[in-house]
Amino acid sequence: MEFLPMSAMLLLLSIGMAYGGEADVLRVEVNLTGENIYHFDVTVLHKDEGWKHYANQWDVVAPDTTVLGTRTLYHPHVNEQPFTRSLSGVKIPTGIDRVTIRAHDSVYEYGGKVVTVELPR
Question: Which helix (H) or strand (E) holds 97?
Answer without folding.
Answer: none
